[in-house]
Amino acid sequence: MFDSVIVFAVISILSALTIWCTVIFVTSLKAARTAAIVKNGLLALLTAALLVSAGVIIAPPLMLSDDPWYAEHPWVEVWLFLAMSCGMLASYFKIQIEERRAIAAAKALRGDVTYTPLRIDKWDMLYPFLVSVITFGAVLQATGKDTLDVTQLIVSFQTGFFWQTVLPRAVNAAGGQMQAGLPSGDK
């Protein structure tokens, strides 16, 4: 059990690093500085290569198994985490598109028909990933220990998309468990 926790922690940290470097790369694309684009693109590729190589090194040998490598642990958790991360990003972009529509409608009322770009803030984009471990606990609880299938990926994506509602429930459940462990005078 401890080995799988360490494997998950290493892969999660490398996944977060890959996402962070990709965000930096996208930010440098907006600035349109060629040197920064090349440097940050190479940094994003390097962290993605580290993620893949760590996964290959950590993965157990599967030569005698009938199951495909992606359906084995810890890869099931990696795919679920990636699906949840995509859901978090989709939620962020949904909010940005709604804000853009509101700004464009207000501009149209004033007679301004100029293009309104999406406002992408790297810190707002990073915010859901700060609580991703708590949200991922809900994903693991919902999916169980079954083999990987499309339903689990959809549940993982959906949990990431609605991370704002999952987080208070997880915090309240943890608080209730902590309160249950205290002596009666401490509650």
Would you give an account of this structure?
Helix 3 (75-109) packs antiparallel against helix 4 (122-130) and helix 3 packs across helix 5 (132-143). 75% of the residues lie in helices and 0% in strands. The two termini are 32 Å apart. It is built from seven helices and no strands. By secondary structure, it is mostly helical.
Q: In a few lines, what is going on in this structure?
A:
The chain is built from seven helices and no strands. The chain has 187 residues and is mainly α.
How big is the Rg? 20 Å
Sketch the major β-sheet: none
Which percent range fits the helix content? over 70%
Shape: globular
Query: SSE string, helix = H, strand = E?
Result: HHHHHHH
Cα separation of the termini: 32 Å
pLDDT < 50 stretches:
none
- Structural class computed from helices and strand pairing: mainly alpha
Tell me the total number of β-strands.
0
- Give the averaged pLDDT, no decimals: 76
User: Tally the helices: what do you get?
Assistant: 7
Strand content: under 5%
